[in-house]
Structures are given as structure tokens and as C-alpha cells.
Design a protein that fits this description.
By secondary structure, the chain is an alpha/beta fold. Helix content is about 35%, strand content about 25%. The chain folds into three domains: about 170 residues, no CATH class; about 130 residues, 60s Ribosomal Protein L30, Chain: A; about 180 residues, Fe-S hydro-lyase, tartrate dehydratase beta-type, catalytic domain (fumarase, Alpha-Beta Barrel), CATH 3.20.130. β15, α12 and β16 form a beta-alpha-beta unit. The longest helix has 20 residues. Keywords: 4Fe-4S, Iron, Iron-sulfur, Lyase, Metal-binding. Homodimer.
């Protein structure tokens, strides 16, 4: 047994947490960039290739601008492996030290991050204003160091986490593939899938979450071949999931996942707990060690790992320009699923909390604070602007959360169209067809790039909701894809179906 004792100060823990959260807000892990770049080169679907180009260009812009990759800067999740020969020199507990680091990171005046955490999840859901508290998992291990894994998990992918307990002889692979086929694209592929098998319900979920932070190595695994049942399952799932044809942003294509990670643990003879957690295209995480010599030193990545891709939405000869200020129902009726549009003019914003308030006012016959008739609404909660920015990163949020409000809003307001992320559910599609109000998508994972299309921004209603307030944006050539047209045709159905058939034809 080592007699050496390491003293790690509370200040070094707090600073390291704050620095790491800032770091992962604007730097993608380089392994993900290499794998996504390879997928971009191989991709044959024009829509998916365009989506990946936006994600890669956005990533490079965020790295140079040191601004968030995605407007949803995530729920903070910490895995701390504390050596049993370490003494933490602090009057505060570990959770308090970590949460102070979260506060410092999210309130950083040079790169403020979006506060998305709400307290009292059952009723008031009041924003904590600083994104604390973090979710902290602690493990005591031999040694005289503390190893931290710091991750920021977006709501779109977190909401797609799933768990089941299979019969002992049931196929894990079949359940995973069937489940992913039902998740839609709200988790922002192309990303990763974490799988935990065994233990208990909470252990399986914990394994699935933690294993997502392992290095991406699928190409290496395919080259050398599997050396364990877990690696066999990884390869099988990687191939079967990509064969679904879901593709980038659910538009249909060759790559849905760049890797699949699997962790197992002994379990009860009567059980087979299985957890599935997707990781979105933001893929924010970092690992560092504190050994008592100071806070973590985080070295910027080598930007030569980023591909030199030029993206100019206005250069597309197939894109249709749309003037939002002169829009008519007759014009929106001509838009077709899969078509690329460039939006210019005045665009309203509104997401979950704003929609609830709008519907509450409609239900009691009260006037709305903004006239929605003839307008287009964008489901977004932007990051706070800094310096000379008009608005911070402003990518779309998952639209299915607005489905429950769609019929009421369209019927009562005369709203012309909607912009968000991922597919719409049957109730929303029915309302879209009934009211002939089409739905478009912007690319999730391209928030900083999208913000450059916004030329002015002002809050016009529900200012107390913070990032969920209603803004009016003036946009210029904001690139979107028609997702559901007025006839109910959906690119999220036609795209994956086409590419699933193409892929199966090659097997």
C-alpha cells in the first residue's frame, strides 16, 4: 500500500470543472471530428451530406470563435474517480465544489452558456439561472489522484434514453435496433449509442451514460476484429443501426452512428437489464486528472483535424428564396418535403414555455402579446449574445415537444409555418395538413453557423422566461429544409425509407 497522500484543493477542483465546461462548449473531441469527416466523405445522400457539412463548419467556427457548438449547452454530468489516498482540502463538500465550477462556467461573461436547468420539476420548473446543480457520480478507487469525466448532455438526446428488462435469453441487439427505429431524429444524429447490459436498472443506465465518454474506435475495431462478446455486439449494432438508413438529422443516409459503446456487469439470473442512451452530434465531454500540483491544464486541439469545408447556403442552385415579410398561404402551399429554402425577413421564436403560455391565454380568451397571424415561428432558445453578436448560438430545439400545442395554436392564431428540429408526430402532422401550415427544419448541431444568418434580435414577449422568451429575429438566407408539407408528406419518412432500401440492396 502506498503511503503517499495527495492533497487536492477545493479551488483546483472548482477551477478545473469551470475550465473544462468552457472547453467542451466550443471544442469537439477530435476523434468525433475525424469520424464525422470520414462519414461526410462517404455519404451519398445529398441532404445528409449537407447536414454533416453544416455540423463540421459550425464546429470549426465555434472552435475559432470560442462560442458554443450548440445552443443547448447541456445538463452537466460528472464522473469522479477519487483515489483513496487523496485528501480534498476544502470546507465544502465535493458536490458544492463542482456546482460552483458549473456556476462559474455558465456565467462566464466572455462565453456565457445557456442555463437550461429548472428546479422543482413537478410544478414551477423555475430556471436555476446558472445551470446548477450537476449530476455527480463518485467512485472510490485505489491511488492518489482524482480523475474527472465532465460531460454536458443536451435535452434532445437525453430525452431519448430508454430502459428495459429482457428475458435472459432475449436478444439485446434486436431490442436496441427496434428501439432506435422508433426514436426519430430528435437526438441529433450522427452520434453515438451507449448500451449498458446487466447489473440492475440504475446500474445499466449508469453504464450506458458513462461508456459514451470512451474514445471512438469503431474503425480500429472493425480492422482487427472483435475480441469479446461486447465487441461482437458493438460491431453488430453499428452495422444494423446504420442499415436503418436514418442518416444525419434523420434525413436518410449511410451514417446514423459513428460508434456504439457497450458495457456489461454481472446481474441476477432471472434478469437482463438493458439501457440505451444516444449521444448527439455535439458530443461534449473531457477527461482530466488532478494530482495535487494544480488545476487541470487543457490543451486546445490541433485544428488541422478539422476538414477545410466551405459552406455557403446561398450558393445552392436548388434552394428557393423566401421573403417572410410578404409570405402568403398560396406560396407556402407550393413548398414540398425535401426542398431547401433560404428564409429572409422577420421570424418569431417560441418554444415549450412560450407555447404553454400562448395556449393558456387562448383557453381563457385573453389577447396574445404578439400577433401570430401570417407569421413563421422558430422553435429555439438562443444563447446570450456577447460583444458584437446580434444573438448567441441559436440552433433549433426538438419540435415534437410542441406537438401538443400545434392544433390549438394554428387554429386560433393563423400562424403560417413552423421551423424546428427533427420529425413531427401524427397529431402535429394532422394539424399541419388541416391548417395547411408547413413545417421546416434547421440543422441541429449548427447553432453558431445559424446565428450568423440572424441580423437583428429583440425580445417582444414573455421576457421573464429568459432563453424561452419570444424574440423577433431579422434573418437573411437562413437555410432550412422542408420537412412536412401541406399534404402531409414527411422527409423524415421518405428519406430513411429510401436509404434503408438502398443499403439493404447492397448487403
Amino acid at each position: 500500500m502506498s503511503s503517499k497522500q495527495t492533497i487536492v484543493t477545493g479551488e483546483h477542483i472548482t477551477k478545473s470543472i469551470a475550465d473544462s465546461l468552457q472547453y467542451i462548449s466550443y471544442y469537439h473531441p477530435t476523434d468525433y471530428i475525424r469520424y464525422l469527416s470520414s462519414a461526410y466523405e462517404r455519404e451519398e445522400s445529398p441532404a445528409a451530406k449537407n447536414a454533416m457539412a453544416q455540423i463540421l463548419v459550425n464546429s470549426r467556427m465555434a472552435a475559432f470563435g470560442r462560442r458554443p457548438i450548440c445552443q443547448d449547452t447541456g445538463l452537466v454530468v460528472i464522473f469522479a474517480k477519487i483515489g483513496m489516498s487523496v485528501q480534498i482540502d476544502s470546507a465544502q463538500g465535493l458536490g458544492d465544489l463542482i456546482n460552483e465550477g458549473v456556476r462559474q462556467a455558465y456565467l462566464d461573461p466572455y462565453n456565457p452558456l445557456r442555463a437550461s436547468v429548472v428546479s422543482d420539476p413537478l410544478s414551477t420548473r423555475r430556471n436555476t439561472k446558472d445551470n446548477s446543480p450537476a449530476i455527480v457520480h463518485v467512485d472510490l478507487v485505489p491511488g492518489n489522484e482524482i480523475t474527472f469525466i465532465v460531460a454536458a448532455k443536451g435535452g434532445g438526446s437525453e430525452n431519448k434514453a430508454r430502459f428495459t428488462t429482457l428475458n435472459p435469453n432475449a436478444s439485446v441487439s434486436d431490442w436496441i435496433v427496434e428501439t432506435i427505429s422508433t426514436l426519430g431524429s430528435g437526438w441529433c444524429p450522427p452520434g453515438l449509442i451507449g448500451v449498458g447490459v446487466g447489473g440492475s436498472a440504475e446500474k445499466a443506465m449508469l453504464m450506458a451514460k458513462e461508456v459514451l465518454n470512451e474514445p471512438i474506435d469503431m474503425f480500429e475495431l472493425l480492422a482487427r476484429g472483435p475480441a469479446s462478446p461486447e465487441e461482437e455486439l458493438r460491431i453488430e449494432l453499428y452495422q444494423r443501426i446504420n442499415a436503418l438508413g436514418i442518416g444525419a438529422q434523420g434525413l436518410g443516409g449511410l451514417t446514423t452512428v459513428v460508434d456504439v459503446k457497450v458495457e456489461t456487469f454481472p446481474t441476477h439470473a432471472a434478469s437482463k437489464p438493458v439501457a440505451l442512451i444516444p449521444q448527439c452530434a455535439a458530443n461534449r465531454h473531457i477527461k482530466f486528472t488532478l494530482d495535487g500540483t494544480g488545476p487541470a491544464v487543457l490543451t486546445p486541439p490541433d485544428m488541422s483535424d478539422w476538414p477545410d469545408i466551405e459552406y455557403d447556403s446561398t450558393s445552392s442552385t436548388n434552394a428557393r428564396r423566401v421573403n417572410l415579410d410578404t409570405l402568403t398561404k398560396e406560396e407556402t402551399a407550393t413548398w414540398r418535403a425535401g426542398e431547401m429554402l433560404l428564409l429572409s425577413g422577420k421570424l418569431l421564436t417560441g418554444r415549450d414555455a412560450a407555447h404553454k403560455r400562448i395556449v393558456d391565454l387562448i383557453n381563457v380568451g385573453q389577447p396574445l402579446p404578439v400577433d401570430l397571424k401570417g407569421r413563421v415561428i422558430y422553435y429555439v432558445g438562443p444563447v446570450q449574445a456577447v460583444r458584437d453578436e446580434i444573438v448567441g448560438p441559436a440552433g433549433p430545439t426538438t419540435s415534437t415537444r410542441m406537438d401538443m400545442f400545434t392544433e390549438k395554436v394554428l387554429a386560433a392564431t393563423g400562424l403560417f409555418a413552423m421551423v424546428g428540429k427533427a420529425e413531427r408526430g401524427p397529431v402535429a402532422v394532422e394539424a399541419i395538413v388541416k391548417h395547411r401550415a408547413p413545417y421546416m427544419i434547421a440543422i441541429g448541431g449548427a447553432a453558431y453557423l445559424i446565428s450568423k444568418s440572424i441580423k437583428s434580435a429583440r425580445v417582444i414577449a414573455f421576457e421573464d422566461l429568459g432563453m424561452e422568451a419570444i424574440y423577433e429575429f431579422e434573418v437573411q438566407d437562413l437555410p432550412v429544409t422542408m420537412a412536412v408539407d401541406v399534404e402531409g408528406n414527411s422527409v423524415h419518412k421518405s428519406g430513411p425509407a429510401e436509404w434503408r432500401q438502398r443499403i439493404m440492396g447492397r448487403l
